[in-house]
Design a protein that fits this description.
- The chain has no helices and 36 strands.
- It has strands at residues 2-7, 14-28, 32-39, 45-52, 58-66, 74-78, 82-87, 93-97, 100-104, 112-114, 120-127, 133-139, 145-150, 158-161, 167-173, 179-185, 188-194, 202-204, 211-214, 220-227, 231-238, 246-250, 255-257, 263-267, 272-276, 284-287, 293-300, 303-308, 312-323, 332-334, 342-346, 351-357, 363-368, 375-379, 392-400, 404-411.
Length: 413
């Protein structure tokens, strides 16, 4: 549970609010392994994955599309398994997978295949604008790492790195020029960094990470396997752009930081989400309603989605509730919700005024200081001109000498 200050249109209308974090299953199809998820806003999103045969081998791909925040999903089958999807706006996007790159210019209604001229299994794609993008993976025959780069929206793809054995699993950019990808070779590896949008890459000697995420040029996170007497998976943190890494907490799964303070990761073995609001100093555990989360994506601190290997799409929902400061427990509103009349009562001499605001922040009714020890107001739901207000949510602000307290009112008719 988090706490925040909610300001509604007026500088002196402040509520202390509880925000309850809930993960829920939005979509379910056990026939699919869902590998990648991307949203450009709270409404438009895409999920990609694959469908397996009786032996568990991926044989075809699937693309899911929503335009209402995940309330409804449209499904499209494609010929090959897909691992990652990226959009730069509501229309232009790319999806990659097993020797396939797909591109759409109509929000995912239709897709065309782009030729990369190499037989490569691609695990991640990121575009920083409509023209510039990178995809990473592993060459299928030589088992060498592979980075593909395009500067024309994928019409032509250039192989920018196949220098060594290994797989490139994850990819992250913080702006149009600076990005990182991790080399995974058994338990060793390293990190590659670009400063020119993916044209060239420099090696940073360190362990190999299965998942990486950066919030700026210096602060980043990675999840890697550690064997020091026992096999374990650990979340690491860097503050120097990837040169040095320190252990943080046990974790095994994708990482997503919305900003430097707010981030998420997963422990698939414990089947929990791990969440921080202070840059990784402390972490809270939240139950996961599914299994084997493959990728996370957030558009802001209140809206996030997760794709899982068991065919579930999960949505993160933040619900709010008013937190009332107990120092002013002598304030009473009854009944609430109300139909005709509501009694607003307080016995505090520090109270200066009472105001009622509508949901848009406009003041519809007010009572000023009566120099009385006890206030008892019977309000009939009318505004300052005696007109009956419509039913709905209102906010009653109590202006004390040194503090403003807000309580929610619900008018039923």
């Amino acid at each position: 549970m988090k706490h925040l200050l909610l300001i509604l249109g007026l500088s002196n209308l402040i509520m202390s609010v509880h925000v309850y974090a809930v993960w829920e299953i939005q979509y379910s199809n056990w026939d699919y392994n869902l590998n990648g998820v991307h949203f450009v806003d709270t409404l438009h999103g895409w999920v990609v994955g694959d469908s397996s045969n009786l032996y568990g081998e991926p044989v075809s791909g699937v693309i899911l599309r929503t335009v209402d925040g995940g309330l409804h999903w449209e499904c499209m089958r494609v010929t090959r398994p897909l691992n990652s999807v990226c959009f730069v706006d509501t229309l232009h996007g790319w999806a990659v997978g097993d020797s396939i790159i797909l591109h759409t210019e109509d929000g995912g209604i239709s897709w065309i295949e782009q030729d990369c001229h190499v037989d490569v299994r691609l695990y991640k794609v990121i575009f920083v604008n409509r023209d510039t993008g990178c995809a990473v993976g592993q060459l299928k025959r030589s088992l060498k790492r592979c980075i593909l780069y395009t500067a024309d929206g994928g019409n032509t793809w250039v192989v920018s790195d196949t220098a060594a054995y290994g797989a490139l699993i994850d990819l992250w950019f913080v702006d149009e020029n600076h990005g990182w990808t991790s080399i995974l070779v058994a338990l060793v590896g390293g990190v590659l960094r670009t400063c020119d949008g993916g044209i060239t890459w420099q090696s940073i000697p360190c362990r190999g990470f299965e998942y990486i995420c950066f919030t700026d040029l210096t602060h980043g996170w990675g999840v890697a396997q550690v064997i020091d007497g026992a096999e374990r998976w650990v979340l690491f943190h860097t503050t120097d752009g990837g040169l040095n890494w320190t252990e943080v907490i046990p974790a095994h799964g994708d990482i997503f930081f919305i900003d430097e303070e707010n981030g998420w990761t997963v422990d698939v073995w414990q089947n929990v989400f791990l969440h921080t609001t202070d840059g990784g100093i402390t972490w809270e555990s939240e139950d996961c309603p599914s299994l084997y989360v493959s990728e996370l994506y957030f558009v802001d601190v209140n809206h996030g989605w997760a794709a899982t290997e068991v065919g579930h799409i999960l949505r993160y929902v933040a619900t709010e509730g008013v937190e009332e400061h107990h120092v002013y427990d002598e304030v009473s509103i009854s009944p609430n919700p109300f139909y005709d009349n509501v009694v607003i009562e307080t016995n505090s001499m520090a109270l200066r005024s009472i105001k009622v605001y509508n949901i848009l922040g406009g003041c519809v009714k007010s009572w000023t200081n009566r120099h009385a020890h006890k206030w008892v107001i019977v309000w009939d739901g009318t505004d300052e001109f005696g007109r009956y207000l419509s039913k709905g949510v209102y906010f009653c602000e109590f202006e004390f000498t040194d503090f403003n307290l807000v309580k929610k009112l619900i008018k039923l008719r």
